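Quick sanity check, DinB-like domain-containing protein:
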Amino acid sequence: MKIPAIKKLVETQTIESLREAEEQLINEETPAFEIEGADEGEKLTHVFGAIWILNHMGDHNTDFKTALREFTQKVRVSIS
């Protein structure tokens, strides 16, 4: 997971386009826009992260940094 890749998606894509890309990656298709990542799994992680952050920003009226911090905390907890 690379934070700059997630940030780029948050800044350049809509939730709808990210959901389409998620579906395309799951179906082993090529998304309509570039997603950084070493493989499909990492690309999907970046898309999931961007969707979560955009939803969190909208639901809680927070900025990107706050939503990103909460997302990375959730990831850390799930790993440990």
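Posting the structure with no commentary besides this: The chain has one domain: 3-78.
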